[in-house]
Design brief:
This protein is of the alpha/beta class. The protein contains 13 helices and 18 strands. The protein is globular.
């Protein structure tokens, strides 16, 4: 039984972080706490941060300042990747009570409950005292400002997650993330993530199937498989397993009506995986394949594990197997040493590929990464202009892709009702669709596309039918 309204979790960053936040919410409710409607009403606010760019750090600091200003009595707990990377920097900010790194994220619920429900805990006692990197609550000075709890992230050899169940008021939405992998063994020269999330580790196959079926039982119809380096799932097992085995198990042993695979590195898009996605109507026709740069020289400086010609081969195989699939990529501009000539090489490479969308980022130097010490840093104004150029290319490609589907039918899942008489939906191939009329979230529908909007497609009510039950 929920006893006291008290916490609010705000997530920043990637799908893996969102999945972590959902797990935190579940842990907090299991301890007997209830969610507040917003940060301004909460007694404890948990900020689950990202640190992939300087802008991500800035967003977290701005949120801390805003929450402290609007709710000065709230105790602010900062966790996630920024907390793991720069705990002292965060602890110096006014309003911060605790800084808990990814290394000790599994203790957040106990720390919060100890503050809101002190009679539930006796000093130094915990049923989780044998868990990895456990710190006794007796040593966590709950009344002390900015207590810092950050340890060695590489001490983690298992994936520690809480079940992410549907139907809770906190997590009630469509398309939940099922995080099956964390950490990364790559050492890209620009990336801080391995230092804040640790080595690659995977959720056991049986547990993934169990979690997936729990989400199905709770009523979810599309589930997104996520991870920090998703395609490396199973490589830390003895004996090793491959991501394709996980996908097959989900198809064979779960009732998921539709699941979507999030970002997978180019080298992990095997012929078998491409065939699985192409052949199964239960897998969304969507391939997100990080590129970063179309210049071989820049990819080498980034310490990426593929060459442009490898990448082209993968994309062409995906497009041949799935002519109508969404194909997206992450692109970075302004990496140290990216001359005008090398940027043009990358731009030409990107223009020639059948992308349907791009996530374009401007390089952000991260302390502790190899690229931070590189010479030939690109001026910010130059990098921003390159960002603009690639975003225009992405917009043109997306428009051309959307035009293909006018007069055709698409499978969609409804997300939320719009302000007017339409419902926001997402197509199987990752296009925004506005379906005429008021429809509940989480409905699978087959709709006829009638026209193109600014960044979406439109469908009329009389050309719509429900799928499944």
């Amino acid at each position: 039984m929920l006893i006291v309204p008290g916490f609010f979790v705000q997530n920043f960053g990637c799908r893996a972080t969102q999945a972590d936040g959902a797990a935190l919410e579940r842990q907090l409710t299991t301890q007997g706490l209830a969610a507040a409607g917003c940060a301004e009403e909460a007694r404890i606010v948990v900020l689950n941060t990202c640190t992939v760019t300087a802008a991500a750090d800035q967003d977290a600091r701005a949120a801390i300042r805003r929450i402290h200003r609007e709710n000065p009595d709230a105790k602010i707990m900062v966790t996630g990747c920024y907390a793991q990377r720069a705990p002292q920097e965060i602890s110096a900010l006014p309003g911060v009570t605790w800084v808990v790194g990814n290394s000790h994220k599994h203790q957040i619920a106990e720390i919060a409950a100890s503050q809101l429900l002190p009679n539930k805990f006796s000093a130094g006692a915990s049923e989780n005292a044998t868990s990895q990197n456990f710190v006794s609550l007796e040593s966590v000075a709950l009344s002390a400002p900015a207590f810092t709890l950050v340890g060695d992230i590489f001490a983690h050899t298992e994936l520690i997650v809480a079940p992410v169940f549907a139907g809770d008021s906190i997590t009630e939405k469509t398309r939940p993330n099922l995080k099956v992998q964390d950490g990364c063994d790559n050492r890209c020269s620009f990336c801080i993530i391995p230092s804040v999330r640790g080595q690659s580790r995977s959720m056991k196959l049986e547990r993934v199937v169990e979690e997936a079926n729990a989400l199905v039982t709770a009523g979810y119809r599309e589930v997104v498989l996520s991870g920090i380096n998703l395609g490396r799932w199973g490589r830390d097992f003895q004996p090793q397993m491959k991501f394709e085995q996980l996908v097959r198990a989900l198809l064979e042993h779960t009732g998921i009506e539709k699941f979507r695979i999030s970002s997978v590195e180019p080298m992990d898009w095997s012929d078998e995986l491409i065939a699985l996605v192409a052949d199964s109507p239960r897998i969304a026709k969507h391939a997100h394949v990080p590129l970063q740069s179309g210049s071989d020289a820049i990819l080498r400086r980034m310490h990426r594990k593929y060459r442009p010609w490898h990448y082209v081969e993968k994309i062409r195989k995906i497009r041949e197997a799935m002519p109508d699939a969404a194909i997206g990529a992450d692109i970075m501009v302004g990496f140290p040493g990216e001359t005008d000539e090398l940027f043009e090489e990358s731009r030409n490479f990107i223009e020639q590929l059948p992308f349907t969308y791009l996530h374009v980022f401007t390089y952000s130097s991260r302390p502790g990464t190899a690229s931070a010490a590189m010479s030939d840093q690109v001026p910010v104004h130059v990098a921003r202009e390159r960002n603009r150029i690639l975003r225009e290319i992405a917009a043109e490609k997306n428009l051309a892709f959307r035009k293909k589907f006018v007069g055709q039918k698409l499978d969609v899942i409804t997300l939320q009702t719009g302000r007017e008489n339409w419902t926001e939906a997402l197509s199987d191939n990752y296009l925004k669709v506005r379906v005429h009329g008021q429809h509940a979230p989480n409905e699978l529908m087959n709709v006829n596309i009638s026209e193109i909007g600014d960044d979406h497609l439109l469908s009329t009510a009389e050309e719509t039918c429900l799928l499944g039950t």
